[in-house]
DNA sequence: CCTGGCACTCTTCATATGCGAGTGCCAGCG
DNA sequence: CGCTGGCACTCGCATATGAAGAGTGCCAGG
């Protein structure tokens, strides 16, 4: 186990390195932090920390920088979450309150997060899995063509075209619309398949084909849309990443374009609070030199989606975690109100 | 006026520079292109071209590189549009045909363009201005709360919430829905205001407030959604930009995040064919070292939106223009079919 | 266990130097 | 008049060399 002072040293190293972006040496440490001991002592502590794998030196005779393991310890034991100041909170609230629809909420959230953290922001659209159906609308566009519109309680709208096997009258359509809504409106997506299972039986044989097709399209939509959408922003902040650009930034940009990768990344964080994945903890190679700070958010108590930021492992964790948490909280409020 | 050979020299310089990314000298030119004259002659031509401002040398005693003006001449007079090969066409078509809905079409188009051109792709969602209304749906969510759903002929769906000044019965709602659709279905957006102007008069006085409110929300939606959306992709290709990274790439990333900037950029191109804006021709500062190749696309003959790519001024113009044009063509087809 | 001192290692920066690419100009030739 | 070969010149780039500085590890003493 590491002594109390050694933890202090690690904390100081992380803080200084995050601030200056340069390897930090023993002398500088004693000058900037009142640790009450001499550089030589610090050197011993540093050697110990290095043995344990918490810090490393880029090249012999340079200062130390934290390793992923070092950041992990820092985040877990040494740093809290830095709460937002009152003015910051007000600014967040004001900015988000101006949103006019769901897309706008997400767009504003992305901008806000990117600006607050000066990093790349990622916001997942509210998930459908846990959402409920607000309304299903059916529109006849042609005798044998129906448009299906699904509206969720988060305000999301999805539409699909259905080509019917046989012409489908307005009366049947109205009937189906009414029956469908009375069964699924207000229900959870996961319950829908069960609820509509026997619906075709209520219709004339010649309409059953169409009804089944509409239903299967509806179910498809529910499943497909589980492949969440997300929005990213603040990629220009990547330019502050490091000096050795192209090699660092490219895989990150590539990873950010792979929505699948990002969704998996966000999805993996099961923690109820703020989750931090540091460097190599991220499965995707391109993100091995980045950390991902994410948190769930939702309109009620339940989290329906995730949001977070992607930045260099050398980031201000307490501040970033604070910003992410605060934004998630306010977005939740906004969603609950609308 | 420049002699024929000097134009040839300019063309050769552009081609070589685009290929190698290095300033091209007189000797290299004669070796790689059969111009039939000696390096010395080329040197004279180069001096002339430089006097006219078509080429420049980064530093004394280096080869020449084209200036924006040089690229302009190249694009206007010296280069055609390189058509896609048959396999490429097939690939484009196959890739786009898999799309299931409008979002998917746009997403696939972005990926495709980015891959084909190895540059940043920008695709504007089909515009509403020139679109027609397919259907307007009204849903009663609460006695005094109505959801308005607008469906366009391009398959786009927009929804808005309307808080009514007074409770609004199902019967009135159905009435309004029917009247509204009989008037606006199939009509152009721009005609809608005129068409619904006198609609409140047909209703009971106590319902008129609500009707007006629904109508004004509808009109707002039409206008607001004129602020087009767009999707970008392939930003990882920016890493191939140049060697002097951070300074070059940052303003570009920033510009790309300002959708307003991009929309203006695309909007400015009035040309019926492929439009190329080179370097400083782009109003936005951040894009002064990039060229934008764009073209309109649409389901019918009419262009309803733009798509294009953003890349370094040093790009393969004929190839890029060919790819952009081809993709636009096929997207138009896909949209017309659906 | 902490401290000051000391020798050692390595990176970084500046300066110097040679090389090569490419130019501009000129005199001569068709 | 235009093209050509030759030649001197300029400059950027890369490599080498050396001095400086930062930081370490270790050790002996308090």
Question: How would you characterize the overall build of this protein?
Answer:
The structure is a homodimer of 338-residue chains. Chain A is built from twelve helices and ten strands. With 338 residues, chain A is α+β, with helices and mostly antiparallel strands. In chain A, the strands form three sheets. A five-stranded antiparallel sheet of chain A has the order 7-3-10-9-8, with helices on both faces. Chain A has a three-stranded antiparallel sheet with strand order 4-5-6. In chain A, strands 1-2 form a two-stranded antiparallel ribbon. In chain A, strand 1 (55-56) and strand 2 (65-66) form a beta hairpin. The longest helix of chain A is centred in the C-terminal third of the chain and has 21 residues, at 317-337. Chain A is elongated, with a radius of gyration of 26 Å. The mean pLDDT of chain A is 88. The interface between A and B is medium-sized, with 32 and 32 residues. The first copy, chain A, binds a DNA duplex (30 and 30 nucleotides) through residues 23, 25-28, 37-41, 43-44, 46-47, 57, 59-63.
